[in-house]
Structures are given as C-alpha cells and as structure tokens.
Design brief:
The complex is a heterodimer of chains A (576) and B (88).
Chain A: H1 3-24, H2 30-35, H3 42-53, H4 56-69, H5 74-98, H6 103-110, H7 114-146, H8 151-201, H9 206-209, H10 221-231, H11 245-261, H12 263-266, H13 275-311, H14 326-334, E1 337-338, E2 361-362, H15 366-374, H16 379-417, H17 423-446, H18 452-476, H19 482-504, H20 532-549, H21 555-565
Antiparallel strand pairs in A: 1-2
Helix pairs in contact in A: 1-8, 1-16, 3-8, 3-13, 4-13, 4-15, 4-16, 5-11, 5-13, 5-21, 6-7, 7-8, 7-16, 7-17, 7-18, 7-19, 8-13, 8-16, 8-17, 10-13, 11-18, 11-20, 13-15, 15-16, 16-17, 18-19, 18-20, 19-20
Chain B: H1 6-37, H2 39-42, E1 46-47, E2 50-51, H3 52-82
Antiparallel strand pairs in B: 1-2
Chain lengths: 576, 88
C-alpha cells in the first residue's frame, strides 16, 4: 500500500482509540479531574507516567543528539532516568501520603504561607509552559512531514484531539489515553530498532546488538563506528566528552534533579491508592521508560553508522548526488537535511572539517524519523513511527496542560481567589482552565517565540532550582521555615535565570547577552543548560541559612511532617 | 494500625534514611562514578564490543536504577510491616 495512505490509516486508528477512551472515561468530580479518582493501579500508573514523561524530545530528538555526540550524549540517558530513583525515594511516597491534588498546595501547607504557594504556582507555570511549546512544535512537525498537511493544520488537529480527552476526562481521561499512547510509542520505537539491529548484527536485541560484531565480520559495531568517524576527522564516538567531565557531571545532576521536580510527573503519583503503590509505581514507570532509553543509544550508534555507510559505501568512494536515495530527497525538501557541492564533483563528501564538509545540515531530529527509511524497512514501520512520535508529543502535552490547569483552578481560584466555590463550580472552572491552557499553548505553537528551542532545557533548570529543593526540604527538614523556603526558591530560580540570561540573552534575545555565549566565561566551564544543579545548591544553602535565623515552623506544621513520613493512615486523595 | 510512639517514629525514620543512603551510594557510583568520573579507567576494560565505562553510561546505570527502586520498594514494605504502619 502507498506510504501516505498507510500513514493516514495508522495515525487515524490511534486517534480513534484515544477518542474512544476519552468518551469511556469522563470525569464526574474534581477528584476524577485532578487525580483520576485516586484509584489507578500502580503498574497502569507507571505506564501512564512513562508516556507522560517521554516527550517528543525523548522519542524524536534524543537518539539523534546521542548519534552526533557519542559518549557525551550519555548525560541525557543517565540524567533523564536517574531522576526517578530520587523521585521514588525523596518525594513520591510522602507527597502521596499528604494526599492532596497539586504540588503548590503541598508547598503552601507545609510552609504555612499563601505567598509560598503563589511562588510555587509561578514556578510551575513557567516550567510547564516552556515545556509544552516544544510538544506543540513536535506535533506540528510530525504532521507536516508524515501527512503532508501544513504545520498549522497539523497543530490544529493535534489540539482538537487533546482538547477532546483532556477537557472531558481531566486526569482520568489523560491517564487511560497515556496508557494507550505508551503502547503505541514503545512499539513504534522498538520495532524499527529490532529490524535494524538484526540487519546490522543479527542480534534481535538492540541493547546487545550495539555491543556485537557486524554480520559476517569479526569487527565490533562500535569499533567500526569509532574508526569511521575518526577517519572523517570527528572525535572517537565512544569516548568523546561533552565539554568536560565536570560539565557532564553538572548536566547529569541538573537533569536528574529537574526530572524529580517536574510537577506534571509528580502529580501522576497522586493517582495511586497507597503510599506503597507510589513507591512501586515509580519503579514500573522507570522500567517502561528504560525499554526506550536502553534502545536509544543503539538506535543512535546504528543510525550514525547507516548514515555514513550510505554516503560512503566503500572507503574513499563517496555517493553520487544524483544517485541519492528517496529518503535523502524527502528530507531535503524539509530543510532539515542539506547538501552543498563545494568541490563540484557531484559526490557527497562528509567530514568534520567545515570547509570541505558537504552535508551542510543534518538535523538531529531526522535520525529517528528517517532511520527506518535509511534502513529500508517496510512502509508500515514508517507509518508506525509517525503515530509513535505523535503519541509521545500528545501524551506529554496533555500531562503538562493538566498541571497548568489544576494550578490555575485549584491553587489560584479555589485556594486564593474564591475559597468558597462549590465542587461543581470548581470542576467547571478546571475544564475552562484546561481549555484556555490548550488554546494558549496552541497559540504559542503557531507563533513560537524565538527562545522556544532553548527553553526545554530551562524548564529542567527551573524545576531543579526551585520546586525540587522546596519539596525535599519540606519533607526532610522540620526546621525549614516559610521565609527560608521562599527565599530559597527565589534565590535558586534567580541565580539560574541570571546565569542563563547573561550567556544566552535576556529572554534569549542574543544581543542582550551581557557576558556573551562564550565558554571562556562559563562558571567552571559549566554550560547554561547544566546550571540547574548549581541553582539547586544555592536554593538549599539560602533556605537553610534563612531558616536558622527565623522562628521555627508552628507545631501543627511539624506534626504534618511527622504525619507524611509514615505510611499508615494514608487516605485516598481528600476532597475538600 | 497502631499509632507510633515518638521513639518508634524516630527509629522508623532513621531506618528509612539509612536504607536511602545505602541506595544513593549505589546510584551515585554507577552513574556519576562509573559513567563519568571513572569512565576513562573503566574504558580500558572491554566486554564484547562495549568499553565498560561507555556501557555504564549508556546502558548499565539505567538497569541498576530500575533494580534500585524495586529493591527500595521491597525493603520499605518490610520496614512498614515491622513497625506495623502498613496501610489497610
């Protein structure tokens, strides 16, 4: 069957499934809307969390980044998985025991302060909005490439789908669609990887294939890859650092802490029935995530090898431009792949030397999407990849939108502006907030601000430097006072924003970068994206100092901390 | 379900912290240790096609993380039973 028709069929079927689930799982109460009724099985929640967490960045971009960074790309693999260990031990069980609906609500109660709650709402909205723009862009790109509709139409279709199940079902609808989306995205990711691993090494497990010999030879795949990239003048694939060991350390730490502090991930743990379930659910989530994350480095290495072997089929003999394969032509039209015949010989030279390199653009993002085409896999696999990319972007967008909507309707409206509103009114308000959040995110997707690309990394930096330390101190230190927590959050976010802006420009407008984006000026050689870990340290330090000189939290708050530390007596998320 | 005395609550919390500390050491060693700080040393060792440091950074650390969480879950369930603070 024609690829185009097949893609429409597969993507259409997946959308029909999401809509069917939405109708079946309507939300009837605020508890349904915020925490899916609080009765989600830990394995189901783990699967939903995996889809919630794995965004367009994990599905589409990550393997591409690793393909071009080699060992240096490990920061994403370790950073984005190691955070779940912290989440499982430091936050999830205690926040579940506390048993309310949102992250700012905990911060407001624990630090006995509406101001602290308001600061948390602001941090949450900044992190989530910056993150959701990236998902909206991912939806638009996936549609425009695979279904050949224009970017705007694609975005609109995506928004309508999310609108349907998120507004109707809230967390309940989102949870069950995320489970379906996980299944779609993990099949879409692993099936091509299995085929490619079989082709190259004869091993059906990509995780083992990456460490195996190439079919019919005694040469290890990674050795061949190292040798090929070094012949072209690149650094050795398996040992290439990202800037420095210290930078990789800070980057990994920032991603780990940021992962544990992202509100849309944390609120997923409010949906399970018990404290014990919150612990195990984090384990299931990471297991489901690990299936993709251990496959990704194999996809990365194999895609890089395939790409180079396509361009240079025999050593020294480069591919003629006129004989380039179809996928090369297709991606050229998107502008994500570009060739420039610098020496006029009609062949495609690829090299690390920018003066002779003729592959002038190879966008990271095409590696996963073009991979099945490069490996000449059947059309249905390519169609499946399109549906998988969309599932990853839609599931994360929905989770983020719920975090934003509940912060608005529950923390701002019910918590501060109109505490007296009825449950029905709050449910209606939460649906309106959700609809508004979708329209707002859609608007930003249509008119992405110039700084959109840099902000996903910033979302992690902000979560790491503001929300995570506040939550952790709220649970592990009875002595942290409201003044300490607020000062810590403001200082942590402040120093992170300051560092990013001074190197990348205020609101990412490059001309306002007062220190310039120059590695020479980086603090200990740490790149701005990796600075969240330093911001977190500042947050902890400031909060501890300020808490020391302010009067201790009231006895009722100390009792609250005692209460959340022990599982017994955890009730289902309370209506209030 | 019984209410814990102050001393019991403290003992429970200390045991929890001790377990967390132990697991965090492992968490740190496999990722920051083997994957970043000691990577060049471990890369001298090769297992199949993988240099060992590279393997920890791109595969091994992730497997260990999964095991750590499930181990934590199991140990905490035991601790909850011992102090009689499990739910239901």
């Amino acid at each position: 069957m024609e690829l185009q028709t097949l893609t429409y069929l597969v993507v259409g079927a997946s959308f029909a499934l999401y809509i069917g689930i939405a109708i079946w799982s309507r939300a009837g109460s605020t508890k349904d809307f915020y925490v899916a009724g609080g009765g989600v099985h830990p394995v189901a929640n783990g699967m939903a969390t995996a889809a919630d967490w794995m965004s367009a960045a994990s599905f589409i971009s990550m393997a591409g980044m690793i393909a071009f960074m080699g060992y240096g790309g490990s920061v994403f693999l370790m950073g984005w998985t190691g955070g779940f260990v912290i989440l499982a031990m430091f936050l999830a069980p205690y926040l579940r025991k506390y048993g309310k609906f949102t992250v700012p609500e905990f911060i407001g109660d624990r630090f006995y302060s509406k101001a602290a709650r308001a600061v948390a709402v602001v941090c949450l909205i900044i992190c989530s909005v910056t993150y959701v723009i990236g998902q909206m862009k991912g939806i638009g790109v996936a549609f425009s490439r695979f279904l050949e509709v224009d970017y705007g139409t694609g975005l609109l279709v995506g928004m309508c789908i999310v609108f349907f199940y998120a507004v109707l079902g809230g967390m309940k609808g989102i949870t069950y669609t995320q489970i379906a989306q996980y299944c779609v995205l993990i099949m879409a990711y692993t099936i091509p990887a299995i085929f490619i691993s079989l082709n190259l090494t004869g091993n059906p497990f990509p995780q083992l294939g990456l460490g195996s010999t190439l079919t019919g030879t005694d040469t290890y795949l990674l050795d061949k890859l190292d040798q090929m990239v070094m012949e072209l003048g690149f650094n050795q694939y398996t040992t290439e650092y990202r800037l420095s060991g210290l930078n990789m350390f800070a980057y990994t730490a920032s991603l780990m802490i940021g992962t544990a502090g992202l509100p849309h991930v944390i609120i997923r743990f409010f949906t399970v029935p018990k404290v014990r379930d919150a612990r195990s659910s984090a384990g299931w989530a990471l297991l489901f995530i690990a299936i993709l994350y251990t496959t990704a480095p194999a996809v990365a290495g194999m895609a890089r090898l395939n790409l180079m072997q396509t361009i240079e089929p025999t050593p020294g003999e480069y591919l003629e431009y006129d004989k380039r394969p179809d996928w090369f032509r297709n991606w050229e039209t998107t502008g994500l792949l570009a060739f420039e015949d610098k020496n006029g010989d009609g062949r495609i030279q690829y090299s690390a030397d920018t003066t002779t390199n003729e592959m002038v653009t190879v966008d990271n993002d095409i590696m996963v999407l073009a991979n099945p085409e490069i490996a000449q896999l059947p059309n249905w696999v390519i169609a499946l990849v399109a549906a998988g990319g969309l599932a990853a972007a839609l599931s994360t967008a929905a989770g983020l939108l719920l975090a934003i909507a509940s912060a608005i309707s529950h923390d701002l409206l019910k918590g501060m502006i109109a505490p007296g509103i009825s449950e029905r009114a709050e449910l209606r308000a939460s649906r309106v907030a959700m609809a508004a959040a979708i329209v707002g995110a859609g608007y930003l997707g249509f008119n992405p601000p110039g700084f959109a690309a840099g902000t996903v990394a910033l979302a992690f930096g902000l979560a790491a430097s503001s929300i995570f330390p506040a939550l952790m101190m709220g649970i592990f230190s009875k002595r942290t006072t409201k003044e300490g927590a607020i000062a810590g959050m403001v200082a942590g976010i402040g120093v992170t924003l300051f560092y990013v802006f001074q190197h990348k420009g205020i609101m990412f407008i490059a001309s306002t970068a007062f220190l310039g984006d120059m590695p020479a000026n980086w603090f200990l050689g740490i790149e701005p994206n990796a600075f969240g870990a330093v911001g977190a340290v500042v947050n902890f330090a400031v909060a501890m100092l300020v808490s020391r000189v302010t009067s201790a939290p009231p006895a009722s708050v100390q009792e609250l901390v005692e209460h959340i530390r022990v599982p017994a007596g955890a009730s289902a998320a309370q209506d209030h | 379900m019984s209410r814990l005395t102050e001393a019991q609550a403290l003992a429970y919390w200390r045991r929890n912290l001790a377990l967390m500390f132990k697991l965090l050491v492992v968490w740190f060693v496999v990722s920051f240790g083997c994957g970043i700080l000691l990577v060049d040393v471990l890369n001298q060792i090769q297992i199949g096609g993988y240099k060992l440091g590279f393997w920890f950074a791109q595969q091994g650390s992730i497997y260990v993380f999964v095991v750590l969480i499930f181990y934590y879950t199991r140990q905490m369930a035991k601790l909850d039973r011992e102090f009689n603070v499990e739910e239901d």
